[in-house]
Design a protein that fits this description.
The chain is of the alpha/beta class. It is built from 15 helices and ten strands. The chain is 46% helix and 11% strand. The strands form two sheets. It has a six-stranded parallel β-sheet with strand order 7-6-5-8-9-10, sandwiched between helices. A four-stranded parallel β-sheet has the order 3-2-1-4. Helix 2 runs antiparallel to helix 8 and helix 3 runs parallel beside helix 12.
């Protein structure tokens, strides 16, 4: 598969669609074979915005997919695939967290991207161990993330638009996962996660002050649950936020449950506020209204924002995105005291009928 994708690296969009159709035909031709899906060890945003929709599209085309497919992802996120497949194993059970990070770093050094654009020997060994763990019979089919990255690349490069993307994906909302009993939350709360990434530079005094003030404003109106346990399982470092009416997740969450617990708490929040990125996109995919911010627009394709805007309108889920400068401008416009507004509003005279 990897050799073919390398050969077709500059393939036209129609060729990529044809190749995916041939993949589907092959999966249907050997309908008795199990299907291993993964291993996914890449970014959360790509997983929820493209990988899960791509797998959902294949499920709609492949006979008995949900019974044959075995999901290999990490952090307990396999439960978010329950509408696609009934079985799977967590990557954090098969491998130590440090080893996974080393493999991601190695891939990033080789390709310049934290993207699984090729099947590595490490991935192949993981799939063999996953098959053993789940007692999957050989031979088995493999749907590696490289298929998705290769097939959908024309959309990210903006050579093709949404019609192309949606011809290879299924954007039905991700079902809300059940809240674990070990993670009590208030009846109503706002989920918050501010973390440093290329679009949200930190440490920076102005950024830190803005985050603290914003969270204090929210906490004065509603409890906040921070999607952070203090454990270093995530790819990004969370900003430290403290204050009244602000709680964090339990500190003893296992690596193989970390992302699932965050997703479950996020799914049952009244809203999400935080950094623009994968968590904001996950909130949208689960139908949770979100407001996310960035400090600078760099290192990310505008196509991702275009997709989120499209899904927001399609599913009638608010998804507000802006820079810190945008937020400060809005504050100037909307934070005028009510008594001043009442004294300055000009009421037009009635128009005679």
């Amino acid at each position: 598969m990897s050799q073919r994708m390398t050969f077709f690296r500059k393939a036209m969009a129609a060729q990529r669609i044809k190749a995916v159709q041939e993949l589907i035909a092959g999966l249907n031709a050997d309908k008795e074979r199990p299907i291993l899906v993964g291993p996914w060890r890449s970014e959360l945003g790509f997983e929820v915005s493209y990988w899960i929709p791509f797998v959902a599209f294949l499920r709609s085309k492949v006979k008995d997919f949900d019974a044959r497919a075995h999901i290999v992802t990490r952090g307990g996120m396999g439960r978010l695939y329950s509408h696609l497949a009934a079985q799977g194993v967590d990557l954090y059970i098969l491998r130590e967290l440090a080893e996974i990070r080393r493999e991601n770093l190695r891939s990033q050094v080789e390709t310049g991207l934290l993207k699984q654009t090729q099947v590595t020997e490490w991935d192949e060994r993981v799939l063999e161990d996953a098959a053993d763990a789940m007692k999957v019979q050989r031979p088995f089919h493999v749907i590696h993330p490289a298929w998705m990255y290769w097939a959908l690349a024309p959309f990210w490069s903006e050579d093709m638009g949404l019609n192309y993307l949606t011809s290879l994906t299924d954007y039905a909302p991700i079902p809300k996962p059940t809240l674990p009993e070990t993670c009590p939350v208030p009846p109503k709360y706002v989920a918050v996660k501010f973390y440093s990434r290329h679009t949200f530079q930190y440490p920076h005094q102005e950024v830190g002050e803005w985050v603290q003030q914003t969270c204090a404003t929210i906490a004065a109106q509603s409890p906040i649950v921070l999607l952070s346990s203090g454990c270093e399982y995530d790819d990004h470092a969370d900003l430290q936020i403290t204050g009244l009416n602000i709680a964090s997740l339990p500190a003893n969450i296992l690596p193989e449950q970390n992302l699932y617990v965050q997703a479950a708490v996020l799914a049952h929040a009244s809203a999400f506020v935080g950094t623009y990125g994968g968590v904001a996109q996950l909130a949208l995919r689960m139908g949770v209204p979100g407001l996310s911010v960035y400090t600078q627009w760099s290192g990310t394709a505008h196509a991702h924002l275009s997709l989120s805007s499209y899904l927001s309108k399609l599913q009638n889920v608010p998804f507000a995105v802006g820079s810190l400068a945008d937020s400060m401008f809005w504050r100037q416009v909307t934070s005028v005291p009510a008594e001043m507004v009442q004294t300055q509003v000009v009421v037009p005279e009635a128009v005679p009928v």
